[in-house]
Write a structure and sequence with these properties.
CATH architecture of the largest domain: 3-Layer(aba) Sandwich
Shape: elongated
Number of strands: 29
CATH topology of the largest domain: Rossmann fold
Structural class: mainly beta
Distance between the termini: 26 Å
Helix content: under 10%
Strand content: 35-45%
Largest sheet: 10 strands, mixed
CATH class of the largest domain: Alpha Beta
Radius of gyration: 25 Å
């Protein structure tokens, strides 16, 4: 493990804009834009809307669209999911799994049968009460944000007090861990739960986006432009952002699962013998972190199957588990769980870890420490292995930990890896250099970080010889290490 004391400020990059990602263009509307009990989905400029009768929902007709609104509350659907055939439901699932977007709305409907969805759920539905309610924006994203300076800002308080969209909303009461929460709230029935959620369907490279919104849309009207000055304007803006939300990829953080426990990262790939860290986050029904919860981790299948661990969530509602992939090549499937006060076990969605053989050449590994300003308490640790796999791709894992602020940076991908200087001749390397650029996620749902790391192996032992440099969103001038060792394996 590389121990590093950083004396400088560490700037972070902004969250990438979604403008370059595909948003809705051609929108098929099952039923119509009208809502049977009042209001409508405004035909906003920039999108093409085409009504599709429930009886006409099939794979052929769906192929004309990139997005579908299933308006269960439309006069044509009449708040009855049975107006869609079993084949239509199957074709809708295939539509999303093919890399498209499906938005489900059941404004002021009675509870519907969503058992046909891959991730089924039930809801609490107060009906047309004309009531105010309480709305919480759980995560800042392109769907909604708490930040007034953000383009995606939604005034949750005004939406709850100035319309009946929140008091009359339908909220999820059965919770599948594959749903991620954008907004939660408390309706007229005093039931608290997720009201705007999303989930991904499909395979890597062709992931579609499934969205559910339980708002009452009475106050949605073309008279109100999308904005935040009034409650109705906020409501129309929520609809606009559902349409603008990119998909395949969606860029959403999925920081909170509706089930109350989220496990990250969803996928990762390392070399055998290195370590892997998963982070469990426990939240309440409003997405607030819950400290002091005992979380159980388990690898349920794969080369390291049977490994378990237990930890307690910190003040951020999070707890990490790090294990070593010593079981060989293959894919681990990992889950986390906790038991609530009623004795109910809440299980996270499964995440995976792929392990492959360590390359026999062209990789960098090791650990070291640097003491720059030991008294300032700004302790950082770095470590991992990065190399070129048998198929020529860059593999491995690199982690950076800001211990003072309890922020961990986990590599999510490598853009480049290059070697220079004299080729390594273990154990007496001489100025062998490895330079790689990686993107890192944080355990605090912060913006991603891109860093170029240069490691210089100046022979054995590494103390006082080997060097490290960081450029990009974390910065450190090239300098010698005070202890430990780097090894650049570059056999050219």
């Amino acid at each position: 493990m590389i121990v590093l004391m950083l004396a400088m400020a560490v700037p972070l990059v902004a969250i990438p804009t979604a403008s370059a990602l595909p948003a809705s263009v051609n929108v098929g509307v099952i039923g119509s834009l009208d809502v049977y009990h009042g209001g409508e989905f405004v035909a906003l400029p920039g999108f093409t809307f085409t009504d599709l009768a429930p009886a006409a929902v099939n794979a052929t007709n769906l192929a004309a669209f990139d997005t579908v609104l299933l308006n269960v509350g439309s006069p044509e659907m009449a708040c009855d999911m049975n107006n869609l055939s079993a084949q239509a439901k199957t074709d809708l699932i295939a539509f999303v799994s093919g890399g498209n977007k499906l938005i489900i709305s059941d404004s002021e409907c009675s509870p519907q049968d969503y058992s046909w969805l891959p991730y089924p759920f039930t809801t609490n539905n107060p009906g047309a009460m004309g009531a105010p309610g309480t709305l919480t924006i759980v995560e800042d994203s392109t769907l909604s944000s708490n930040n007034p300076a953000d383009a995606s800002y939604i005034n949750a308080a005004l939406l709850g007090s100035d319309t009946d969209a929140i008091g009359d909303m339908n909220v999820m009461v059965t919770l599948d861990p594959n749903w991620c929460v954008a907004m939660s709230g408390t309706n007229y029935n005093k039931v608290t739960g997720p009201v705007q959620t999303y989930a991904r369907l499909g395979s890597p490279g062709s992931l579609g986006l499934l969205l559910y919104n339980g708002f009452d849309w009475d106050w949605s009207d073309p008279y109100y432009p999308p904005g935040t000055a009034t409650g109705p304007e906020n409501l129309v803006k929520v609809w606009q952002q559902l349409l603008l939300q990119p998909f395949n990829p969606d860029g959403l953080p999925c920081g909170v699962a509706v089930v109350g426990i989220t496990l990250n990262p969803p996928t990762a790939l390392n070399f055998v013998g290195t370590t892997h860290t998963v982070t469990a986050a426990v939240t309440d029904l409003l997405g607030e972190p819950v400290p002091g919860i005992t979380v159980d981790f388990e690898i349920i299948s794969g080369p390291n199957a049977g490994l378990t661990s237990t930890g307690v969530t910190d003040s951020n509602g999070e707890v990490d588990w790090t294990y070593t992939g010593s079981g060989g090549v293959g894919q681990d499937v990992i889950v986390a769980s906790f038991t609530d006060a009623s004795g109910v076990v809440h299980l996270s969605a499964e995440v995976t870890k792929d392990w492959e053989a360590v390359p026999v050449r062209n990789f960098v590994t090791g650990g070291a420490n640097i003491n720059m300003v030991a008294s300032n308490g700004q302790l950082w640790t770095f470590g991992g292995i990065v190399g070129i796999a048998s198929d020529g791709s860059i593999r491995g894992q690199f982690q950076m930990n800001d211990h003072a602020n309890k922020v961990a940076y986990h590599s999510t991908g490598f853009a480049s890896l290059a070697f220079s200087g004299p080729p390594a001749t273990r154990p007496n390397a001489s100025s062998s250099i490895a330079i790689f650029t990686a993107t890192f996620r944080t355990n605090r749902n912060g913006p991603p970080v891109t860093v170029t790391v240069q490691i210089q192996d100046n022979g054995e032992p590494g103390k006082g010889k080997d060097m490290i440099e960081l450029k990009g969103d974390l910065s450190l001038t090239l300098r010698k290490i005070d202890g430990g060792n780097f090894q650049v394996h570059d056999y050219r």
